[in-house]
Design goal:
Blueprint (H helix, E strand, L loop, with lengths): L19 H21 L5 H35 L11 H6 L6 E11 L2 E11 L2 H12 L4 E6 L3 H5 L3
Antiparallel strand pairs: 1-2, 1-3
């Protein structure tokens, strides 16, 4: 195998010593830009915060009242012996936030091509499902580079030769 030395195509720039005046002017300009960016983002006043907290309290109180009303009516129907069939409609955002499923580990064998030669590597990816793991690997290594993909818990069974 022939090794080649990789050198930069552009010549290196010589080191330039700057005067203190130039350094100070750049520093002042950077501080001025930071101050301008900070002032462009207005901060809420105490009145804004008080109004926001008051609105939050109102919404929370209404939700509590609706919950208690539904709980009381369900208790009355249960005392009468009537089964309650409720249609539950949840916000999709709540479904996403309330889903505590952990990510699953998958082990994949991928082919990596480097300067004309190919090598098979074993890697691990964490994903919600096997389809998402395959998509992640396809994005990272290429569509035709995935040779095998199995859940990590099944890896020993997949490797056994019978």
């Amino acid at each position: 195998m022939k090794y080649t030395d990789i050198r930069p195509t552009q010549p290196q720039q010589p080191y330039v010593v700057q005067s203190n005046q130039v350094k100070r002017s750049r520093l002042r300009k950077g501080i001025a830009v930071a101050i301008a960016k900070d002032q462009a983002n207005p901060r809420p006043t105490t009145d804004d915060l008080a109004m926001g907290f008051a609105r939050y309290a109102q919404v929370q109180r209404q939700a509590d009242q609706q919950y208690e009303k539904a709980r009381r009516s369900a208790a009355k129907l249960a005392q009468r012996g009537i089964g309650v069939v409720q249609e539950t409609r949840q916000d999709p955002a709540q479904l996403l936030l309330e889903r505590p499923d952990p990510l699953h580990a998958y082990i994949a064998v991928v082919r990596v091509k480097v300067s004309g030669s190919a090598i098979n590597l074993r890697t691990q990816v964490w994903a919600d499902g096997i389809l998402q793991a395959r998509k992640l690997l396809q994005h990272q290594y290429g569509v035709n580079s995935i040779l095998a993909l199995v859940p990590a818990r099944d890896w020993e069974r997949a490797c056994k030769v019978s």
